[in-house]
Amino acid sequence: DAMVIQNPRYQVTQFGKPVTLSCSQTLNHNVMYWYQQKSSQAPKLLFHYYDKDFNNEADTPDNFQSRRPNTSFCFLDIRSPGLGDAAMYLCATSKGGEKDDNEQFFGPGTRLTVL
Amino acid sequence: SQQGEEDPQALSIQEGENATMNCSYKTSINNLQWYRQNSGRGLVHLILIRSNEREKHSGRLRVTLDTSKKSSSLLITASRAADTASYFCAMEGSNYKLTFGKGTLLTVNP
Predict the structure, then answer these.
(1) What whole-number distance in Å separates Cα of residue B93 and Cα of residue B85?
(2) Does the distance separating the beta carbons of A104 and B41 come in below 8 Å?
(3) Share above pLDDT 90 across residues of chain B, in percent, rounded to a whole number
(4) Is beta strand B104-109 parallel, antiparallel or unpaired with respect to B10-14?
(5) pLDDT at A90 over 90
(6) Selection from A40, A42, A84, A38 nearest residue A61 by Cα
(7) Best residue of A47, A49, A104, A110 to probe chain B, by most B CBs closer than 10 Å
(8) Are strands A110-114 and B10-14 parallel, antiparallel or unpaired?
(9) Which of A93, A102, B23, B31 has its CA 20 to 30 A from that of B53?
(10) Interface touch B45/A104, C-beta < 8 Å
(11) How many CB pairs under 8 A join A and B?
(12) Does residue B101 sit at the A interface (CB-CB below 8 Å)?
């Protein structure tokens, strides 16, 4: 089945130790997104790619970086995780075609714990 | 900002009852979407309503959109215990981006 896959599902890291979260998709969608979601809050967009074009949100901390080496894969790098970065990280994709019909497909998320 | 406000924040009903959730937003949109999230999981797309549409149905879901009031509602009819989840409205503006509302936590009691 076509889907969005995130690995790992659970990640524990130490304060200041770099961590990479991965996302892959079999939907062949043009757009890939990374969201941060803290407990009982709305998902917050960090950045997204339209194909290889990177779009950073103005309030995304510099500590967060992303790479999209090809259509299928996208990575979220947190260079120096702080305690405040503990959250669920959600990857999503969309076709990126007609603007009136652009639903997003989400992966199951990676729960990041920072010790 | 475009972030939506959802009302109520939490809703508890009995199985078989209808559940209504409301969403308000601030700026113009291309479309408005509703998503469901089970605890600790990813989001699942439920329904999309375009800015030129007023009402849309999908199974037990009914969505309305009033662009003059910048508001939308999601009605779930004949609710089931399995409908227990958080429900988010999301506004699509420019550049394929969605801005999510704060969500409504729906509990359906058997």
Answers:
(1) 25
(2) no
(3) 81
(4) parallel
(5) yes
(6) A84
(7) A104
(8) unpaired
(9) A93
(10) yes
(11) 67
(12) yes
